[in-house]
Amino acid sequence: MFLRRRQSQNLQExxxxxxEAKVKELRAALGPLSGRSLKFCTDACLRRYLxxxxxxxxxxxxxxxxxxxxxxxxxxxxIRWNEVAHEGETGKVSRANFHDLFGRSVLIMRPGKQNTxxxxxxxxxxxxxxxxxxxNLAEGQEQMSWLIDFTGWTMNxxxxxxxxxxxxxxxxxxxPERLAISILYNPPKFFESIWKVIKYFxxxxxSEKFGGKATLNYDHEEFSRLMAKxxxxxxxxLGI
Length: 240
Description:
The longest helix has 29 residues, at 2-30. Helix 7 (161-174) links the parallel strand 3 and strand 4. A 4-stranded mixed sheet has the order 1-2-3-4, covered by helices on one side. It has helices at residues 2-30, 35-40, 43-52, 57-74, 81-84, 119-135, 161-174, 191-200, 204-207, 220-238, and strands at residues 93-99, 105-109, 144-149, 179-185. It is globular, with a radius of gyration of 19 Å. The chain is α/β, with parallel strands linked by helices.
């Protein structure tokens, strides 16, 4: 019994050492970084990209370099609440003012409260809230939880498959391993057929993180005040 435990412990230690070596290898492969790219590429960040690519350094490097290019062009950290507040008037996506038991930010989605048809606007609004959720993670935590409340959602909901595909692309390629679990509340029966379409575009690891029940209310004015305070915090962190 002692021998088995010792062997298991040795395997875990070896695996940990191998992964830390890959983190160093990935950092070296990225080459010199500066400014926001350097701040973004923490060891925890590198581990997430390696995990998303099954610890293949070359694939993780390519993925991370694409994210750095995207962040340089899209500038997600510079989006402010007043730019996307109109998208959030109904509370279709918001961040809860508490963490889950593991210190993860909780992002609440209500697809039944979809209020605009702008694909660009929907993506920008979600990206803002992803960045905000990351900003508010507990120390040492890298992932968030999603609560998706389908109350009121119908096939006439004003969001296209194209926009859904774009959102999934951004989530999987630029926010890998950020989702710990997604809890679905009150999904309609016909959602199963829609889910089959959505699941086609999801990485298997992502699609496994769905299940359960939860819901919360939304106050747009209160949430706007919270976001305004966080925008000040973001500016302080970035030094702008």
